[in-house]
Design a protein that fits this description.
2 copies of one chain form a homodimer. In chain A, 58% of the residues are buried. The first copy, chain A, has 10 helices and 14 strands. In chain A, a hairpin with a 5-residue loop joins strand 12 and strand 13. In chain A, helix 1 packs parallel to helix 3 and helix 2 runs parallel beside helix 3. Chain A is of the alpha+beta class. Chains A and B meet through strand 1, helix 1, strand 2, strand 3 and helix 2 of A and strand 1, helix 1, strand 2, strand 3 and helix 2 of B. Strand 3 of chain A pairs antiparallel with strand 2 of chain B.
Chain lengths: 339, 339
């Protein structure tokens, strides 16, 4: 673990971040050049790196504790999509040099508290990182490490025509919550607002569900860019087409209430990102196995559509969204793009 | 691998970065949520994360190709310090949103060319990452992955009184080269300038030497923060004190010529960073084994001092630097701090 620049930063990080590594012997107390991880026998290592910029991926002024929880949850969500167990992570952090010492301390303390909460929830440990000063906005990157039985990882490229399409939890909450945080959407009730904003701020990576879907699902991705975009990644990687029905997309009560008032919000539900749910396909006849896996993971799942062959797309669309009246919705791909 | 924002960025990255992952099957073509790595049997995984900000860690306007080479070399240098073999890395990249498309393409093409060159030299592969847009300066982070026989990693915390202190290569070149780049130092000759600037821009991680020192050296670190600072990290982690002599510190001909003109530059040599050489200790009687390891790695090594007990420090200094006249130099710790 390294830190650049002022003495104060070194001490803040030793005070607030080093304790997050205390349970990982291979972190070497964040005192060495690199960390050591002993892989479990027969496991592949699963590695993912994500980056977030203040004002781009989360609103400026977002509480440090939420930023920490959300950064770690987003990284773990990628591991969930592969069916991996998560065990460790490293962070890179650029702190605005314009912040004074009190602000730095407050922020790092809050950020560490958020990481700690997510660590406890998902049984992972900080094992290293780097902290620097920047003349720009707050910048964060996280590399998450997990393990999975060799060859068993869920992939995006393994969907087949005839598969059913499923999602976990409820869809669209985070996109509506972000609009509420930005003041772009006025909610019907304060509890609805709280519920949706909470879903944006504190996503729950579906690690347990992902593990239970190994050997059951055919292909999987997490929903970070939006349902249509992430299902589209599966379709591109698998050279197939998907058709989903809005009527079958699971909504939370709060999202359903918003959409009842403004059906135009369907576009945000299917194309907005940040839910960190799983979207996956399963072979024909696997519905009961999927429901059993979900029950064991205590996570709701919903069947929302079907995979067809590469010729199924119309106008080049990989994912067709059928609206409540049975007609196809025109969905603009918004937000993020993966590859 | 993910990318945020404009369509152009997605295509640039697919074009320039995806080929860097072509040799790593576990990168899954950068098309999945995470990458898979199969650890070698009996090996620990070695993980390190570094971050760099334009204008902080390298001068604004530095060639993209050099930035890529240097970022990867810096990450691999941490693996070298542990004695690991390197095999893969992920990157997180924040590209200024103010750059127009032509500038983005030029920069990413150059950056990828620099990574590619370092990949070829050190036999590592890109396996994943994330690219985002930022309103701030260019920001980069790299997580390097390596392997080492279980329990064999070189550590900072294992130096003992009586050990000799060694460094690889020549010391201070990068610090003088950076000063030249910044226009703070006028070199005696153009070839000297070129040689020192080259050492700043294109450091060579001592991976082969690190591997050969496993079982030979007692403790090791890489020199990224400066000789005194990094040897100081060994001393802190090992609860010992080091005494080194400037007369024994290896200088390149170009650095020696500069110092002959201005002996005050010694301070930059011992406290400036970025050389990415190794500093290590060896037990008494191990000098021949060290020299054999260095010969096999075709890397010069020099014995520059000795480790003494925890009571050896004077005025709380962990590292004493004895000048050419036999008197102790006052060395301010400059630049970066690790923990």
């Amino acid at each position: 673990m390294e830190t650049t620049g002022r003495r104060g930063e070194f001490e803040l990080i030793a005070r607030y971040l080093a304790p997050l590594a205390a349970g990982a012997p291979g972190a070497l107390g964040l005192l060495d050049d690199a960390a050591l991880v002993t892989p479990a026998a027969g496991e592949d290592l699963v590695v993912t790196t994500d980056a977030m910029v203040e004002g781009v991926h989360f609103p400026a002024g977002e509480a440090a504790d939420s930023v920490g929880r959300r950064l770690l949850a987003a990284g773990l969500s990628d591991l969930a999509a592969m069916g991996a167990r998560a065990f460790a992570y490293t962070i890179a952090l650029a702190i605005p040099s314009a912040w004074d010492e009190a602000m730095r301390e407050r922020w790092i303390a809050g950020f560490a508290a958020g990481l700690d909460r997510a660590q406890q929830a998902y049984a992972v440990q900080l094992i290293g990182g780097d902290t620097v000063a920047t003349p720009g906005p707050l910048w964060l990157s996280l590399t998450a490490l997990g393990g999975i039985a060799r060859g068993a990882a869920l992939r995006r490229s393994t969907a087949s025509p005839g598969d059913t399409v499923w999602v976990s939890g409820s869809i669209g909450d985070a996109a509506l919550g972000l609009r509420a945080v930005r003041g772009e959407l006025v909610m019907a009730t304060a509890p609805d607002r709280r519920a949706l904003v909470e879903r944006f701020r504190h996503p729950q990576p579906r690690l347990e569900l992902g593990r239970r879907l190994v050997g059951v699902a055919a292909a999987a991705a997490d929903i970070s860019d939006g349902l249509v975009a992430d299902l589209g990644h599966i379709c591109i990687a698998s050279a197939v087409t998907a058709t989903i029905e809005t009527a079958r997309i699971p909504l939370s009560p709060a999202a359903a209430a918003q959409i009842a008032r403004d059906p135009g919000l369907w576009a945000a539900v299917v194309s907005g990102g940040d839910d960190y749910e799983l979207v996956f396909t399963a072979p024909p006849g696997a519905a009961e196995a999927v429901r059993n896996a979900a029950a064991l993971a205590r996570t709701a799942v919903s069947e929302i559509g079907r995979i067809s062959g590469p010729a199924g797309g119309e106008g080049g669309r990989r994912v067709r969204v059928m609206g409540p009246d049975g007609r196809e919705l025109a969905v603009a791909r918004q937000g993020y793009r993966h590859f």
